[in-house]
Specification:
Length: 338
């Protein structure tokens, strides 16, 4: 392997273009080619060879590749890369369904290759700082994790609904933050925009450690909102991943003497602190972690097995919304992802 990893990007949609931009300046990596059946209409390659197929990109000679094609093609492209001995960072969701994701896990494991999934929220500065503070015990026992991910419909999405496109962010980030998988899921979803896939979902869940969760996700809101609220024994953290801000609202220590207000409010209000945290671009941090994993250094990637678990939870969300029954999934997921 050369001094710099030879990297390629497959798919030059919005995310593929961002991946190409980051790879052009990433230390220890050389972007040597990009592939898209439609060509490079946005000049994302910036002088790097542009080819039409995965086979043509492999012929250039690559060590790693980013898979940023539509979700329906993740499996076929990923299996091509695994067969060719190429490490891959596959955009989320890792595959269209659980069986496809399982085949990717098996192929990369068998080939001894690094496979990662682009669950970029793990690399958001607000969530990284939140996880560090939770690990340090600053909140005490965690009671609930609630997320809100709302906004207008993105024209880039056509092959999956809001559950697999957006809710997978919250599924992965919630389990990662809490260090516990989902045990139960209940969900309701609907389609209000006339498209073939669901565009609104509300989810309630419970993790294996007893933490309760709730998730509101839609493509129907005329403003963007990306929030995670973690409530625990000492107060609540609010992470805004749009602005990469983290705020702590602590439980108050001053008793409320006005009886009617005290009875209504329950936990008393304390001070609020917004933390000053380093704000690096999450996509750059994600690529650094993937590069380090390929080079055998210590890193924190989202593994293909992590991606499989997230897809299985997303499928449980869809199953629950169809059946209007709670789905118990911890045993099923651990068996499928083992």
């Amino acid at each position: 392997m050369s001094a710099a990893l030879r990297a390629g990007v497959i798919g030059l949609g919005m995310m593929g273009r961002h991946h190409a931009r980051v790879l052009r300046s990433l230390e220890g990596v050389e972007l040597v080619g990009v592939a898209d059946a439609m060509g490079d209409v946005h000049d994302s390659a910036q002088g790097v060879p542009v080819v039409r197929t995965v086979e043509d990109l492999l012929a250039i000679g690559i060590d790693t590749a980013v898979v940023a094609v539509p979700t329906a093609h993740h499996e076929s492209v990923g299996l091509q890369l695994a067969a060719a001995g190429v490490h891959a960072l596959i955009e989320k969701p890792v595959a269209v369904d659980g069986p496809a994701a399982g085949r990717l896990v098996e192929a990369f494991d068998k080939a001894g290759l690094v496979g990662a999934v682009g669950h970029i929220e793990r690399y958001n500065p607000a969530l990284q700082a939140l996880r560090q503070r939770l690990d340090a015990g600053e909140l005490g026992d965690v009671y609930q994790i609630a997320t809100r991910r709302q906004g207008p419909f993105p024209a880039r999405i056509a092959d999956v609904g809001v559950v697999k496109d957006l809710a997978t962010h919250d599924i992965d980030a919630t389990s990662w933050i809490a260090r516990a998988p989902f045990a139960h899921i209940g969900a309701l979803a609907c389609t209000k925009s006339g498209r073939p896939h669901e565009d609104l979902v509300t989810v309630t869940g419970r993790l294996t450690d007893g933490t309760l969760t709730s998730h509101l996700v839609n493509w129907l809101t005329p403003f963007k909102e990306r929030l995670m609220i973690v409530t625990g024994a000492r107060g609540a953290f609010v992470a805004d991943t749009l602005d990469a801000d983290l705020t702590f609202h602590e439980n108050g220590t001053i008793l409320t003497e006005w009886d009617q207000v005290a009875a209504f409010r329950g936990v008393s209000e304390g001070a609020s602190t917004r933390f000053a945290i380093p704000k690096r671009e999450p996509l750059v941090v994600e690529h650094e972690a993937f590069r380090d994993a390929v080079l055998g250094r210590s890193s924190d990637i989202v593994t293909l097995r992590d991606g499989l678990r997230t897809v299985l939870v997303a499928e449980a969300v869809l199953e629950s919304s169809r059946s209007q029954q709670t789905v118990q999934l911890s045993t099923h997921i651990e068996g499928a992802a083992a």
